[in-house]
Amino acid sequence: MVQTEAPPLAPPAGGRTGVRRASGWGIGLALLLAAGVVAAGRSGGADLVVAQTFVVVFTSIVIEALPFILLGALVSAVIAVYVPERTFARVARLPLPLQLPSAALGGFAFPVCECGSVPVARRLIARGMHPAAGIAFMLASPILNPIVLASTAIAYRGLGLSVEMVGGRLVLGLAMAIGAGWVLGGDTAGELLRERAEDRGNDSDPADGATRRSS
Questions:
Q1: Helix (H) or strand (E) holding 190
Q2: The whole model's pTM is what?
Q3: Along the 215 residues of the chain, how does pLDDT read in single tens digits?
Q4: What Cα–Cα distance (Å) separates residue 160 from each residue in 45, 75, 143, 163, 172?
């Protein structure tokens, strides 16, 4: 009997496309930044000062945001690997009016910023939650996580307004996140979260399959 080996499975095309796109954006930004510095250096001293200020501000923003983006990716990976899928299955079976406050209250558990909340919300949606609940999480997490609430209390402690400011931030933040999710929740999941062009025809991506099932 002749035995033949099965060809190795190719990695999902969508992942390769996403990596190439991210690399292209990074290279493009680096070249644009370098071109701006060179042009300012040749044009004169005043423009050089402006270019240096731009580089300092741009670099500081990147350095401040990068740790939180990495933290968001880390939380997303932990959810994908260590949190049982049945946990999200129970939440996904809830009606949308209960999914929204659950997702918004989930912001207490994840100290991520606006950028870091995106991969976490994407992972929650891929596990079966309604996209409107993912939006509620993205809006609530940056303003309701423990680090932000603690910093708000410290900032207003000298004025004696810690309790009022933290309570106001908590109540208004939850109301805003749940309200936005409720408005967007009138559409079906398929209308809120459309399939990317590079993922069409690729059924090997488990996250993409979970997203299609949620619609």
A1: helix 189-192
A2: 0.57
A3: 444 444 444 444 444 544 455 566 667 666 766 766 666 666 555 567 777 787 788 788 777 767 767 776 777 777 767 777 777 677 778 888 888 888 888 877 776 777 778 888 888 888 788 888 888 988 888 888 887 888 888 888 888 888 899 999 999 999 999 998 888 876 555 566 666 555 555 544 444 444 444 44
A4: 48, 35, 21, 8, 20
